[in-house]
Specification:
- This protein is of the alpha/beta class.
- The protein contains eleven helices and eight strands.
- The longest helix has 13 residues.
Length: about 240
């Protein structure tokens, strides 16, 4: 098998998933592109994943000022692989809108590393944020579902793409500002398969966390089916 792999690499050498340059190994991305990611690593809020937290919850966990003041949060844990910058913005837009579905394995691996403490805390089911059927027909794929399927392969945790559904078409969140984002998605989701959620540790998957309006509304919907806990994991975060 190793010999066969060497022959394949000779004919079709591995390339960087981002820039397309030829790689010496099949690690997926070149060092030049890796350096352009602002990975969220050590200095982050234990609860919401906000970078550069500097307070403590008394249990050895760093928490941000907001989480320190607000004990009740919609999520047990929130994590993102990297910050949303000019470089990652293009990558995510290509993945989401320009049919670069080949980026899903690479992005999911980064998410899996970022969410290691979520999986360590326990996850029973992975649920991608759903699209309205009209948008799904237009785009032809749900980018969050593609990430969820890759995470299933990495973690072994089952996924369910129809546990919740989007029952109302909304404007793209990027077109909304401030409180418009909250009203835009309010009541847009519906529990479709409560048996998948009840008493389970649920992990919601989305591409980018901006204000968190979409994920919070999804969490509100999921909570109707009484899960044991709700976490979220995204590729990037704007905050």
């Amino acid at each position: 098998m190793s010999f066969l792999k060497d022959i394949i690499n000779l004919i079709l050498p591995p390339r960087c998933a981002v820039c397309g340059c030829v790689l010496d190994t099949d690690k997926g991305v070149c060092d030049k592109c890796i350096a352009k990611f602002d990975f969220i690593k050590d200095s982050l809020c234990y609860r919401c994943g906000q970078p550069f937290a500097n307070l403590s919850d008394g249990k050895g966990h760093k928490i941000c000022a907001y989480c320190s003041a607000h004990k009740r949060r919609p999520f047990r844990l929130s994590r993102s692989a990297f910050e949303y910058n000019d470089f990652s913005k293009k990558l995510i837009i290509d993945f989401k809108f320009h049919d670069r579905t080949d980026l899903a394995p690479l992005l999911a691996k980064m998410m899996f590393v970022a969410g290691k403490d979520i999986f360590a805390a326990g996850v029973d089911v992975i649920i991608p944020v759903p699209l309205h059927y009209t948008r799904l027909l237009k785009r032809r794929y749900n980018q969050s579902a593609l990430l969820a399927k890759e995470l299933y392969g990495l973690s072994g945790v089952k996924i369910c793409c129809d546990a919740i559904v989007k029952n109302r078409r909304t404007r793209p969140q990027v077109e909304c500002l401030g409180t418009e984002r909250l009203s835009n998605v309010k009541g847009a989701f519906l529990v479709n398969r409560p048996e998948i959620i009840t008493s389970k540790r649920v992990l919601l998957i989305d591409d980018v966390l901006t204000t968190g309006a979409t994920l919070k509304e999804c969490a509100k919907t999921v909570r109707q089916a009484r899960p044991k806990s709700i976490d979220n994991l995204t590729i990037a975060r704007v905050e």
